[in-house]
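Hey, I was hoping to borrow your eyes for a little while. I'm sending you its amino acid sequence along with the backbone structure tokens. Take your time with it, there's no hurry, and the full record follows here.
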Amino acid sequence: MGIFKNHTQYYREIFALPNILRGPLLTIGFQEICDCEDVYDFYYPSLKDLLISKNVEGVTVLDPFDPRADLHNDLNLPIPIDQYEKYNVLMDIGSLEHIFDTRQVFENCMKMVSIGGLYFLHTPVNGYMYHGLHVFSPELITEAFRLNGFDIVYLRYSSKTGVSLKDPAEASDSLIWIVGRKTTAVDTFKVPQQAEFFTYYQAYKKRQTQEKISIKVKIKFWVKQICPPILLRLGKSFFKRNN
């Protein structure tokens, strides 16, 4: 997916997190920086160049196709054991949706992060027709993190154009920005279940209902505050015209 000008605000927030710019660091996919010629702190050819400019040591790029990458593993297959818990930080800013075996990708990425390390993922959770192989339910992403021992330290949603969203459904093309801190070893990847999503769906519907009720209450309040004075002025005006 790469880095785009409309998304730089989220990268700044994430790069400000403690220990996020600490090597050894692995990026998934050779990620280029696009349309940032007038954004001084992002005026670099690629994510790797940007990280090196921030004095991150040991930046490694994994990409099975790009010759500029340092590693060429296919993440549809199990990663070699010598890569387990090797990286303090792993960044995937747009590769997950392009790889068929989502479970294997998650397992590989989570195993490669050291305990106490950070996993930064950025991927579509609504829309993005013809962009990749997958668009994910946001609950799939958050539950995959939680079930496998990653405490979520950053979670945001945005539109394709960079507008911040409370809910991914608010835009036709939406993205998740999530950073998790690894608290325990990932021996076997724990698969999120649909039943768990139902709990989140119920909470979402309850929140929607509460917001609608809140809006109705506010409207009634302002109607009561505004209408009587207006009606009184209209009545006085009518009385004067007719006398």
